[in-house]
Structure formats: structure tokens, C-alpha cells
Design a protein that fits this description.
Layout: H1 2-21, E1 32-36, H2 43-58, E2 62-66, H3 73-85, E3 90-93, H4 98-110, E4 115-118, E5 130-132, H5 135-149, E6 154-160, H6 165-178, E7 184-191, H7 196-206, E8 216-219, H8 224-234, E9 241-245, H9 249-256, E10 262-265, H10 268-284, E11 305-307, E12 311-314, H11 318-329
Parallel strand pairs: 1-2, 1-3, 3-4, 4-5, 5-11, 6-7, 6-8, 8-9, 9-10
Antiparallel strand pairs: 10-12
Helix pairs in contact: 1-10, 2-10, 3-4, 5-6, 7-8
């Protein structure tokens, strides 16, 4: 097992290093890469888009960051199809709904276009591999912190979008973490359908008639945490636990104020930055076939999963995290 992990690590490192070995003259005017996602105006996706575009500028590559301005899985499919029609050198895609995008991903692979998923996967598609957070592990981390905050007892409401593979894995992690804390119970799982107002309205209702029935709110995506925090703060409700996701500036501010207990930080900039490097490597060192079951091939030239990491942010380290963000943003 240790040797297997070492081999996967070496493969991943090889993909990161190979583009650095390509001299600039190898990049041609025909090369063009797309990054397709949804809700592109969110700070999370702006961060990811910057990682994609900055890497492209370094290598003087054509790169397009595209997707709808709101959470709209079908509109994302439309953008993906437009990208395929442009016959690009490669496509990164964060999959809002795997059932909608699977066939289009498979068609792109069949047409010889490398497709790599980032942040949210389409595991049953023929995409080459996935780059992003180990979402199950992130859920375990959040679940353990939740149980600690609740002192091993309480009712929990979860806000999610159940069609997204990454959020499915996070919820599974939470459930498994809470198995050893039987008095912490997930009583409701609510689909916010990509609309943060659902979280706001639901939390408002719950602190009314159901105030004593809810002890904690878990938010598995970036938008809900700050909405729930706003509701609790505006109504002067204390004693409720919020565990959020991602590092939206408002989320970090609510942590500093003590309204959100913790959030889980991801690395969207890294996902997209590394993703473009890997697509570029695939373009210059294309496997003999893209339409192949690489996951079960012991001699695969591509990894199955590149973990970009995550960490827990709370009041003890939020200031240091923000300082690091500011320093990284400086030219």
C-alpha cells in the first residue's frame, strides 16, 4: 500500500513538473484551454478563475474562464458544449450535476479533447482524473469539530445541494464522523438549490417555532454559512453552532465575531492552476488513447486523484489565515 501511494505521488509530481520542462517555443497559437463552472461571480470561483488565468499568462496560453453567473447546471452544460465546439486543447470543469454532464464529457473524450474535473467530480464519466479536496476527509474533519462544539449532544440541520458529488462526499464524511457520537443527530438535510435565500429563509423559520429543536447548522457549500450567521445575529439568537464551508470574506468575519464556530478552507486557486498545468502536459504528452479505463490500469500515465488539501479555520487561526491571503495576493 505504501509503495502504491508513493507511485501515485510520483505520477502527480511528474505531471506538475513536465510543463516546466517544455520550452516556450512548444506552445503554439493553436493551444486554447477552457475552465467551465457555474456561479462564476462567487468569490470562490473568482479565486479559481484567477489561478487558471494567471498560469495561462505565464505560459502565454489562450485560456477562457466561462460559466453562468448563477447556479444553473443546465447553463453550465451549454457552456461546456460551446467549449467543445471550439475544439480546445483541454477542458477543466467543475461539475454541478454529474447526471447532466456525463454524456457531454464522454463525447469530448471520444473527440480527443482531454477533460479533467476540479472541485466537483463526475466519477462515472470518462474524465481523465479529478483535482480537488478530499471531500470525505473534509466532512470527517467538520463532523468531529461539530461534535466537540455540541459537547456530544444536539440536533443538526444540514444545508447542501445533493446532486453535487463533492457535497455528497462531505455529507458522508459528516455522517461517519457522527457515528461515534450517537447523541448528535442530523434531523434535516435541506437542498438550497444553489440559492442562499433558501438557507436564510429556512434558518429564519427554524429560530422561530423550532428554535429549541435545532442546536447546530452545517453548511456544506460556500453560501449558506454567512446567511445563517446573519439570521442568528440579526435575531440575537445565541447558543447555536454553525460549521461552514470555504473562506468567503463574510464567513471569515463571522468567525472573528464568534457567530460561526469554524469553516473548512479549500484551495480553488491551486485546483485551477495545477489543472491547467496538467492539461498542458497532456496536450504535449498525449496518452495513446484518452478513452481508456485509466483507473484500473497499473501503468496509467495519469493519476486518479490529485488532493489539493483543506484545513479547518476557527477563531484561533482566522487572523493568520487572512494575513496569508493578503500576502499571497500581493504582486
Amino acid at each position: 500500500m505504501r509503495q502504491h501511494k508513493k507511485s501515485l505521488l510520483l505520477l502527480s509530481l511528474a505531471f506538475l513538473i513536465m510543463p516546466l520542462l517544455n520550452c516556450g517555443s512548444e506552445h503554439s497559437a493553436e493551444e486554447r484551454y477552457f475552465f467551465v463552472t457555474t456561479n462564476v461571480k462567487l468569490p470562490y470561483w473568482q479565486n479559481a478563475g484567477n489561478g487558471f488565468i494567471q498560469e495561462a499568462k505565464q505560459w502565454k496560453l489562450r485560456a477562457d474562464f466561462v460559466g453562468p453567473d448563477t447556479y444553473d447546471p443546465q447553463a453550465e452544460v451549454d457552456e461546456f458544449r460551446k467549449a467543445v465546439q471550439a475544439k480546445p486543447s483541454g477542458i477543466l470543469v467543475s461539475v454541478a450535476d454529474a447526471s447532466l454532464l456525463k454524456d457531454d464529457i464522454d463525447k469530448a473524450i471520444a473527440a480527443g479533447i482531454p477533460v479533467v474535473t476540479v472541485d466537483s467530480d463526475a466519477p462515472t464519466s470518462k474524465r481523465l482524473f479529478f483535482i480537488g479536496t478530499n471531500n470525505y476527509q473534509a466532512g470527517l474533519s467538520g463532523g468531529n469539530r461539530l461534535a466537540k462544539e455540541l459537547k456530544d449532544k444536539g440536533n443538526v440541520v444540514v444545508f447542501t445541494m445533493p446532486e453535487q458529488a463533492n457535497l455528497i462526499d462531505r455529507l458522508r464524511g459528516y455522517r461517519d464522523a457522527l457515528e461515534s457520537h450517537p447523541q448528535v443527530k442530523i434531523t434535516q438535510v435541506i437542498d438550497i438549490k444553489g440559492d442562499p435565500r433558501v438557507a436564510f429563509d429556512t434558518a429564519t423559520q427554524m429560530i422561530g417555532k423550532d428554535k429549541d429543536k435545532v442546536d447546530a447548522f452545517v453548511c456544506l457549500e460556500a453560501q449558506a454559512g454567512k446567511e445563517v450567521a446573519t439570521v442568528l445575529d440579526s435575531n440575537k439568537v445565541t447558543g447555536k453552532i454553525i460549521v461552514a464551508m470555504d473562506t468567503d470574506p463574510d464567513t471569515l468575519d463571522w468567525i472573528k465575531k464568534g457567530v460561526i464556530a469554524a469553516t473548512i478552507s479549500q484551495k480553488p486557486y491551486t485546483m485551477a492552476n495545477v489543472g491547467l498545468r496538467m492539461l498542458d502536459s497532456l496536450y504535449h504528452h498525449k496518452p495513446t488513447s484518452l478513452d481508456h479505463n485509466w483507473a484500473e490500469d497499473s501503468f496509467s500515465p495519469v493519476p486518479a486523484f490529485v488532493d489539493t488539501g483543506s484545513s479547518l479555520i476557527d477563531k484561533s487561526n482566522v487572523a493568520a489565515f487572512q494575513a496569508n491571503q493578503s500576502n499571497s495576493a500581493k504582486p
